[in-house]
Design brief:
Blueprint lengths: L1 E5 L9 E7 L6 E2 L4 E6 L4 E5 L4 E6 L6 E3 L3 E7 L23 E2 L2 E5 L9 E7 L6 E2 L4 E6 L4 E5 L4 E6 L6 E3 L3 E6 L9 H7 L20 H10 L17 H13 L18 H4 L9 H16 L2 E9 L1 H18 L6 H14 L5 E4 L2 E4 L5 E3 L1 E3 L2 E3 L2 E2 L7 H16 L13 E5 L18 E5 L3 E7 L2 E15 L5 H16 L2 H5 L2
Parallel strand pairs: 21-25, 25-26
Antiparallel strand pairs: 1-8, 2-4, 2-7, 3-6, 4-5, 6-8, 9-10, 10-17, 11-13, 11-16, 12-15, 13-14, 15-17, 18-28, 19-20, 21-24, 22-23, 26-28, 27-28
Length: 511
């Protein structure tokens, strides 16, 4: 009996995913609930367990393919039945698809299936050049869509006689990419081709370690593109030096601990004339489609809302003194450290009750007021910024808030957050101070109407009771949607947060 392995539910409004990594290959024994593969959506990673004990009979969706919810990923033969078929009778590991178009001894390489709602892609890299010998299933090029990278294998063995779509060109879902010719698509393979054709990756030493032709995990490629880490900076821990997602995370962490070079500011306006001497020392790299999409969506956020930012400053002395006095006792009783985030969460929940429009959203011509606070807490991870949501934060204690933030932070760093955990927020906290930011203007997280930016605590001279004294000060920045929040409401909200933090006893008295 054969048992099907299908794509599980991916979360609300998520309809497709990319097969990132297979942990098993056809013929391997698997136990019930053992992890078979890993899927990636726009924001989370989903592990697919085995539904039964047996052997992996075949893989239907290969790494890099885009699949929909409930799509067939693989088949498992129950214990006692797997392996009974003769090798030549085993199901093909190639995904089913149409035969490549041919003309005489020419075979046309076409764009593979890009997934639902994806109609075009960009040719990012050619791994072969015209005149090179290629083996069947050897990688020819890589395409980039808005969300995923798609590798294009050679449909037959032969010689790459023509490249139709050059690097950087945009192609639709049915376009022809190249032409393979030679002996009706079959040529005498070189030793390198023979190894590839028999499933062995041909390897040459790579300066940074690993093998030159070993294909890295799609999840690792995505992480490298998002974090800006080059392949030479990453040491692969997978089979034959293959780079995995965790390797990229380690490389990003190592780079962050090293002295950072000052980055040149990005120009949004047309470039000024550049001298020939300067041009020879520049390097131009095309933005990935993923980065282009991120840029577009961030700009859309600014264009959609009438976003405005108001600022204030808060004396953190009382909070720091209270935290210093009770932090040991707090950790001993509750098993979690007392940080600043619980104070800010409590202060914001208190202020949102007085200024409910900051906790509301616009739906068409209606304003939807929320009688609860689902607090989004922005968290930096090796692959980018995520915003897990602490639900019903207004009804939680300091200890419950600190525990929830710590748990969500760990899951975010490990890439284990589900889509549900990042949806439904009504207001957001963003703490740029942990990176040393003294002042910034946070961007709204639509459809929310407010986001509070926290910053670095710094000793500054302040006038207290007619005397100049050094006080631990923090700048606060509230970005808000002026379509729903008036200036008076925004300033009132920020003042209430300031008052609660400068006298934390007000939170206990509900003042």
């Amino acid at each position: 009996m054969t048992i099907e392995v299908r794509v599980p539910t991916l979360g609300e409004s998520v309809t497709e995913a990319t097969v990132a990594t297979w942990f098993k290959k056809p013929g391997d024994s698997v136990a019930a609930d053992e992890m078979l593969c890993e899927l990636e959506t726009d924001k989370v990673t989903v592990e697919v367990p085995s539904p039964a004990t047996g052997k992996l009979a075949d893989i239907v969706a290969q790494e890099g393919e885009t699949v929909g919810v409930d799509a067939l990923l693989a088949n498992i033969a129950e214990a006692g039945e797997a392996g009974s078929a003769k090798p030549e009778e085993r199901p093909s590991e190639k995904p089913a698809g149409k035969e490549p178009p041919t003309e005489g001894d020419k075979t046309y390489v076409t764009v593979p299936s890009l997934g639902e709602s994806v109609s075009e892609a960009t040719v990012s890299t050619w791994f072969k050049k015209v005149g090179d010998s290629v083996a069947a299933d050897e990688m020819l090029c890589e395409l980039e869509t808005d969300k995923v990278s798609v590798e294009v294998p050679a449909p037959v063995a032969g010689v790459l006689s023509e490249i139709i779509a050059e690097e950087g060109s945009t192609v639709d879902a049915s376009a022809e990419l190249a032409v393979i010719s030679g002996s009706n698509g079959a040529i005498e393979p070189t030793p390198k081709d023979e190894e590839t054709a028999h499933g062995k990756q041909y390897q040459e030493p790579r300066p940074g370690g690993g093998a030159q032709d070993v294909e890295d995990a799609p999840s690792a490629k995505k992480a490298m593109a998002e974090s800006g880490v080059s392949r030479d900076q990453v040491s692969g821990s997978g089979r034959d030096g293959r780079v995995m997602k965790e390797d990229v995370a380690r490389a990003v962490q190592a780079a962050a601990s090293a002295p950072a070079e000052a980055a040149a500011p990005q120009a949004s306006a047309p470039r000024a004339p550049v001298s020939a001497d300067d041009a020879s020392r520049e390097e131009r790299v095309k933005m990935t489609r993923l980065r282009q999409t991120i840029a577009k969506r961030l700009k859309d956020s600014q264009n959609t809302a009438a976003m405005l930012t108001t600022y204030n400053e808060v004396d953190m002395g009382e909070v720091m003194e209270l935290r210093s006095q009770y932090k040991d006792e707090f950790e001993k009783k509750h098993g979690v450290r007392l940080g600043f985030m619980s104070f800010f969460t409590k202060a914001c929940c208190h202020a949102l009750k007085e200024v409910p429009e900051v906790n509301a959203e616009i739906d068409g011509t209606d304003i939807v007021y929320k009688n609860f606070v689902h607090m989004g807490v922005a968290a930096g991870t090796p692959t980018g910024l995520v915003v897990p949501v602490i639900r019903d934060a207004d009804s939680m204690s300091f200890a419950e808030i600190e525990k929830a933030i710590a748990e969500k932070g760990r899951r975010a760093r490990d890439g284990k957050l589900s889509m549900a955990e990042m949806q439904g927020g009504t207001f957001t906290l963003s703490n740029g101070g942990v990176y040393g930011s003294l002042m910034s203007s946070p961007i709204l997280n639509p459809p929310q109407s407010g986001i509070l930016g926290m910053h670095k605590i710094q000793q500054r001279p302040m006038v207290v009771n007619g005397e100049i004294v050094a006080r631990p000060m923090m700048y606060l920045a509230l970005s808000y949607d002026h379509r729903i929040v008036d200036g008076k409401g925004a300033v009132t909200f920020l003042v209430r947060v300031k008052e609660a933090l400068e006298d934390p006893r007000r939170l206990l008295m509900d003042l």
